[in-house]
Specification:
Layout: H1 3-12, H2 16-24, H3 27-36, E1 56-60, H4 68-73, E2 77-82, H5 85-98, E3 103-106, H6 114-117, E4 121-126, H7 137-147, E5 148-159, E6 182-184, H8 194-197, E7 203-205, H9 210-220, E8 223-230, E9 241-247
Parallel strand pairs: 1-2, 1-4, 2-3, 4-5
Antiparallel strand pairs: 5-9, 6-7, 8-9
Helix pairs in contact: 3-5, 7-9
Length: 255
């Protein structure tokens, strides 16, 4: 396992199950909410995922199953690829409580069995802030390209590289073009007390510019179909997230 992956696995297996219960409730409680309206759990990506019944979907870094289980309830055949055993435990319990089934593969995505998963999925779904955990962006994108069937779709939603460095008070941190792999806080660390936070391990991250992301997608061979920018969660006039839609060309096609 690569060093960055090793560090991130250790971090994401630290009290992750406890956090998901703290934020979303027990798997049974959260499943009851999702079952009321599975499509609603897909939020802003709902319009891109209206016809998933019968499709094979890979939810990359799908964490606690908050998107995987709704997709499964909507009739998709969904597989999560994630590095955390704690995430897997919650997600599998969530699926069971919701009365559906998902596959969960725990491991380093860099080490995925590409012979097994080559051209397996109709759709790849990545959301919630993923790219910074993969310092070798082009290798990561090439793995995704290999997993996707010809004609399949990539839905990639991530933190906006511009908005990442602008606070809500419009204070700017001049870090946009930094390329170093660096230590960062675990995403859910602040949900615990100051005393508890002292013991939290760091994650290992590498942030990318918008051009690095877009050019990486294009160089890999994907056909870019759409790129949307989203305001902050509270409607701030700052680009906080983006959603990128791309396809893998059919064999012999440049479209």
């Amino acid at each position: 396992m690569q060093e960055q992956s090793r560090v991130n696995k250790q971090a994401w297996e630290y009290r992750a199950y406890e956090f998901w219960e703290k934020r979303d409730g027990t798997p049974a409680e959260y499943a009851a909410i999702i079952k009321q309206d599975p499509a609603a759990s897909l939020k802003k990506h709902r319009r891109h995922l209206e016809d998933v019944a019968g499709k094979t979907i890979a939810n990359i870094c799908g964490s606690n199953g908050r998107k995987t289980v709704p997709l499964a309830l909507l009739g998709a055949d969904v597989t999560v690829f994630d590095i955390s055993e704690e995430n897997a435990r919650y997600a599998l319990e969530l699926a069971h409580a919701a009365g559906t089934k998902i596959e969960y593969v725990v491991g380093d995505l860099y080490a995925i069995d590409l012979e097994r998963y080559s051209e397996t999925f109709d759709l790849l779904y990545l959301e919630g802030g993923i790219l910074h955990y993969f310092a070798d962006l082009e290798r990561f994108l090439q793995i995704l390209f290999t997993m996707l069937k010809p004609g399949g779709q990539l839905i990639l939603s991530d933190f906006h590289p511009v908005g990442r460095w602008i606070d809500t008070d419009l204070t700017y941190k001049p870090c946009y073009f930094d390329q170093a792999v660096q230590a960062g806080d675990l995403a859910y660390k602040t949900h615990f007390t100051d005393e508890e936070q002292v013991d939290f391990p760091d994650v290992s991250v590498r942030y990318f510019t918008l051009s690095e992301i877009l050019n990486g997608v294009l160089r890999t061979g994907f056909t870019l179909k759409r790129f949307d920018e989203h305001r902050g969660w509270n409607g701030e006039n700052i680009p906080k997230e983006f959603t990128l839609l791309a396809t893998k060309p059919l064999e012999g096609s440049n479209i």
